[in-house]
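Batch queue: ligand-bound targets. Current item pairs a single chain with pyridoxal-5'-phosphate. No template structures supplied; prediction is de novo from sequence plus SMILES. Inputs echoed for audit trail.
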Amino acid sequence: MAATVEQIERKTLGKVRPHQTQNEGLVFEKSAAGKRGYKLPPLDVPEVDAKAALGPAYRVEKAGLPELSEIEIIRHFTRLSTWNYAIDLGMYPLGSCTMKYNPRVNEYVARIEGLADAHPYRPESLAQGVLEVIDLLQRCLIEITGMDTITLQPAAGAHGEFTGILLVRAWHESRGNARRKIIIPDSAHGTNPATAAICGYQVENLKSNAQGGIDLEALERQVDEDTAALMLTNPSTLGVFENEIHKIADILHAKGALLYMDGANMNALVGKVRPGDFGVDVMHLNLHKTFSTPHGGGGPGSGPVACKKFLEPFLPTPVLVKKDGELHWEYNRPQTVGRVRAFYGNTGMFIRALAYILANGPDGLRQTTEDAVLNANYIRKNLEDLYELPYKTPSMHEVVFSDKRQAAKGVKTGDIAKRLIDYGFHPYTVSFPLIVHGALMIEPTESESLEELDLFIEAMRSIAKEVEESPDLVKSAPHSTRVSRLDEVQAARKPVLRWRHENK
Ligand SMILES: *Cc1c(COP(=O)(O)O)cnc(C)c1O
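Prediction returned. Tokens below.
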């Protein structure tokens, strides 16, 4: 049943990536002296000698900027924009990233004049509307997580981790001892140990058990009076739910340590279970993952931190409080860890996330979670005969295969990912989590239809067949892009901008 690249490409890409736009030259190559993208009216003021007026600030040499007409500039950049891959173009199966669709209603709401124009220095009495939005989002997220309180300040997931561990540290310090170490499982996202280290903690590694979960006995041996916290991703980066999470919490609490949950994978839990109910003390959320605000490309993220009541005194300032029916920012909080971001956080993301939550409602959010888990398991079932599944534990919102069978033919996970580009899909996450050698980490999210999932499965099955029949074709992929295999380290510093004819 394996389809050829051409058949699948026709169905997924169509005319989206026409080959003629791939030969687009550099803007400098298109330049012709004297061309202009603008026209000024005739001079109607006395002419001045710029060189004399500016003195040494006058630039003698030409800046060497490209000279083009307006339509040439528009066409150049529009053509370049068609080379971008985007969630609005096709499936984006990057595991751990929850690349879900950003509903247009979010964008509509974020552009409502009173919200879009609200200035952070506007007096509180005139900003009650946007403060209501922030307050309502806080209450929704507290309800979803089962925690007691929250800050929306952190600008991303990693920044949320940093803020959360600052809370942990401040709480321990308030009891007389900051403690020295944080335990982190070997399946953790790289930002977890980085966070612990930057907050001044020693990182202690905890090995996962054969099911990909926490080994309770090993944890019990490792936790002591010097342990500040365990940082745990749940479901883990293997897509596995820690079903003994309440016991993990008990082991930590018995020694006075706290349970931090990396909540980047909440897309598998929203509406089904609440971290606050299974013993988590503090956690972050990624609004740009779970709650559908735009994601990637360096745009603004948002990583709220929710925690239990006992951590509330340490929250970053200002904290939103309601007094006499009006919302105010409260600054005077003696035990605060301080401000972690300018103003109040990325407000545009709050508006989008709230729009998403309200548009779905409780039943819709639960359905979303169920569909995300169903989609991941549909992919798992349809690929597990061709790709090695290192952990047999049931999958939540993502599935992790390994390239073991393909590696026997000399084809690695990175090669398969690059071949996927030829089939019109963004690659999955390559070589992560680190505990799976040659990992293929796939997270379809709930956004994908059955038809799109089937196309993806067809592409992956077709590639597995290619690995058997013509491994070199896969090892030299992608074949349909402007440039092919770049030096992945050098490419960021020495970009290769010119079309290489030998690729076609
Ligand atoms: C994405 C992610 C993070 C980091 O979030 P950013 O917003 O990229 O800083 C942390 N942990 C896990 C498990 C993640 O998937």
